[in-house]
Amino acid sequence: MRLSGVGRDEQFGTFGYGKPVFAKAYASSPVLTQNIAEAKKLVKQAGATGKTITIGTTSQLAVIAADTGAYQAAAQAIGLKVVLKSVPAQDFINFFVDPKFRVGVDCFPGAAFGDSSDPAALLAQVVLPGGLQNFDGFNDPAITAALEQARGTANPDHRAALMAMAEKLTAQQLPWIPSVQPDTALVLSKDLTGAVSSSAYLIAPWANQLGGTG
Questions:
Q1: CA-CA distance, 2 to 125, in Å (whole number)?
Q2: How confident is the model at residue 181, as a pLDDT?
Q3: In this structure, what are the phi and psi dihedrals at residue 144, rounded to the nearest 5 degrees?
Q4: Contacts of 95 (CB under 8 A, 6+ apart)
Q5: CA geometry: angle at 112 spanning 172 and 34, to 5°?
Q6: Is 53 helix (H, G, I), strand (E, B) or coil?
């Protein structure tokens, strides 16, 4: 499983067509809130209380270490045990590119972002069989069917409705788990101001907001 740095608002920012349809789906989507008691019940129902999960991580990258700590604390709070497979920073990329490196690892944190105006571009990487970021072989026929139908639909609102359905189903199954407001380190000269201090710099203009303090 992928612990992803893409948030609810960031994914919404990739919707470049059928915007009224996406806006309605977004407005009606549930805001995820923490419910430890209910989570404990689900863990117990699954027969997983006291079982161990292994998180791939590195202590040498501050953002990754912080995300790992958050998921570790959450898992322990609902009755799971956590083992960390920590590797040097230069080896962390291997969790993404080497299946053998992921053996024995249940999940690992990372950053994901939409880099096109079609949310299908990002979602397909995660939920379609063989997707670039589908690391555990996730396969849901209903989600795949919605994405395939959307790809062949010319009407932007109809296409958006199919995409919204695919995203709703994905949010129910969570083949990746979104993190809310992941940390982003920004080092800025005292003579500069206006720089974007979130991961939005990866997918949006930022230099046009940069200026001097004098």
A1: 12
A2: 66
A3: -60, -45
A4: 56, 87, 101, 102, 105, 108, 110
A5: 40
A6: strand
| Cβ density class 141-155: b for 16+ within 10 Å, e for less | eebeebbeebeebee
Which is it for strands 192-193 and 211-212: parallel, antiparallel or unpaired?
antiparallel
Of the candidates 134, 21, 38, 118, the residue with the CA atom closest to the CA atom of residue 78: 38
Query: Does residue 213 sit within a domain?
Result: no
Question: What are 78-135's pLDDT values in tens digits?
Answer: 999 999 999 999 999 999 999 999 999 999 998 777 667 788 888 999 999 999 999 9
CATH of the domain at 104: 3.10.105.10
pTM: 0.80
Tally of domains within the chain: 1
How many helices (H) and strands (E) are present in the chain, helices listed first? 8, 7
